[in-house]
Design a protein that fits this description.
Chains A, B: It comes from Roseivirga pacifica. Two copies of one chain form a homodimer. With about 325 residues, chain A is α/β, with parallel strands linked by helices. Chain A is built from 14 helices and nine strands. Helix content of chain A is about 40%, strand content about 15%. In chain A, helix 3 packs across helix 6.
Chain lengths: ~325, ~325
């Protein structure tokens, strides 16, 4: 009897010694979505993921087709008072100004250098494009990446005083992790510049550069006299990854229709529409509604940026789940209490 | 003594019961590159992978930067007598002909329908583009994918009688597997149509659709009256992923300079050049030289397709490794003895 007892203990110890590793592989001891309040939104997300990833479920989606796409501005990180990439461009204009004395008398540069963003943007799309092309073209991709990295490391937000890559939404980072833990591939699909994002998104969201789809300049391969090579960004638009451009960008880059799409503005409407009107598997459309004036910003239908109008009108028709930021999220930013 | 002995046996059994799983995670019991003959080429590949993936090595490359790019035509699958995608386009012309009676009198269609490929291509690039646009545009991406899948499943090669996706190079498939087992991400970077390849490459090479870079048409998002949505391929070129286009395509799609690049023609020259002239990590350039007239085809400098001229001239200068197909490969196709 005592012998059996000893055996049992030793067997138990041995099993204990090797079981944690195996368990860790099957299901990590992590609580997902911990910054989400319990409620209909969190439940809808978890129900979708559970039913589409449970073997034998009628709604099962094979791993190869688990494609999830996320807008970035106002969806994974904040976008107020204006798109952060525009703030980067403005800072670049200031940095470049000493080499361009002519800008003192030339719009939109003059207004920008005088700190009047509103006047600078009075020139509409043309002025905006000029600012972006001046700061995002005419240099090698390595030089551009270095300038973005420097800005991300040093610049801070006018309201929070935080670095911009700290102003990411903690619940969305957890949603990305939750999906990846269930073998979804997570992609960014943003109107923002693809190579602006690629510099910092892997660290912020765990999304590698090649899973980022965005707007882009044309580029050219160049060989220098010393034999060194580079890809140079031209001051010419290549692709605008916004609105009806998002399904096209996804098609060209990913080559598959997503089963899960997440956005926050009418720029994401067509991406969600394309995703959730597909035949076959169940699909999930997710809209982030900025309802939290205290911890973040409250805006939707009349906003000068990140306008959400058509999306709110049609969410019910398409069966999209709407996140109410104020009520659905325990915290907004990682630095929140 | 007997008790200890029993314990030892039980302990052994328990350890045995849980150890195989753990070992399988560390290092699968697979012999890589088994279709490669031992020799300088195989050794160069293995030396590079070993030194760049061994922790503590001066040449160590972090996992996030292990990007490997592969040309497709003549590099992962065969390309003689002409690019297989052109054979697909010709078959499509024949399928579409009953709806286009005017083709009987219109080049290049007339010549194609009469089986005279040479005459059809006498119109040069313009004729080729016309054939490709007629068969690769003006339909939804789903319709196009279905036509490619049908062709891959049914069409056979005029010389071997095999399906085209059987005419892949077994040693290259093993090289892809070997790199992935060492945490390299493997991408296709081809002058061929990106959505032509995406239909069948995952099954053939284990490369998912979103890791395929290629030439493309422009596309448009469309909503039908019944609310269904599609991305439609237009009869307009978007991007040619060949020659100096390859570094640009890699930059736009992957966003990182590869550390390993593999090709077989002068269309791959700039991709290898951009890869192996980079600073920092060690890099590897690999050229496949078609030297095997018996098991495959022998061609290089004067070939009408897959011409390799500049690459052979400059391989030594850039330190590229050249595969001699006849001597380096034990077998060419998976169906070879």
């Amino acid at each position: 009897m005592k012998k059996l007892y000893t055996l049992a203990i030793i067997s138990g110890l041995l099993l204990f010694a090797c079981s944690p590793k195996e368990e860790a592989i099957k299901e990590p001891a992590v609580t997902y979505l911990s910054s989400w309040n319990d409620g209909a939104t969190k439940r809808a997300i978890m129900d979708f993921v559970t039913k589409t990833t449970t073997e034998g479920s009628a709604d099962f989606i094979p791993v190869a087709d688990r494609i999830a796409t996320f807008d970035n501005d106002g969806n994974l990180w904040a976008e107020q008072p204006v798109y952060f990439q525009l703030l980067f461009a403005i800072d670049q204009i200031k940095t470049m100004a000493p080499e361009h004395p002519e800008w003192k008398n030339e719009q939109p540069y003059k207004a920008l250098l005088e700190g009047d963003i509103k006047a600078a943007l009075a020139g509409g799309e043309k002025a905006l494009l000029q600012i972006v092309m001046t700061t995002h073209g005419g240099m090698s991709n390595d030089e551009f990446a270095a300038s973005v990295k420097n800005w991300i490391d040093t610049a801070t937000h006018p309201k929070t005083g935080k670095h911009y890559n700290e102003m990411i939404y903690q619940p969305m980072v957890e949603l990305l992790e939750y999906l990846r833990a269930h073998d979804f591939k997570t992609f960014i699909v943003s109107g923002g510049g693809v190579d602006f994002m690629r510099v910092w998104v892997e660290e912020a969201y765990g999304i590698p550069p090649y899973q980022v789809v965005g707007s882009s300049n044309k580029a050219r391969f160049e060989v220098a006299e010393d034999g060194s090579t580079s890809v140079v960004k031209l001051q010419e638009l290549n692709f605008i990854d916004d609105k009806e451009g998002k399904p096209v960008g996804i098609y060209q880059h990913i080559g598959q229709r997503p089963v899960f799409a997440s956005g926050n503005s009418d720029g994401d409407y067509q991406m969600l529409q394309w995703t959730t009107t597909a035949k076959g598997y169940p699909r999930f459309g997710l809209l982030l509604h900025h309802t939290d004036a205290e911890r973040e910003w409250a805006y939707d239908r009349e906003s000068h940026i990140g306008q959400l109008n058509k999306g709110l009108d049609d969410a019910q028709k398409f069966g999209w789940t709407v996140i109410d930021m104020k009520n659905d999220w325990k915290k907004v930013f990682p630095f929140d209490e």
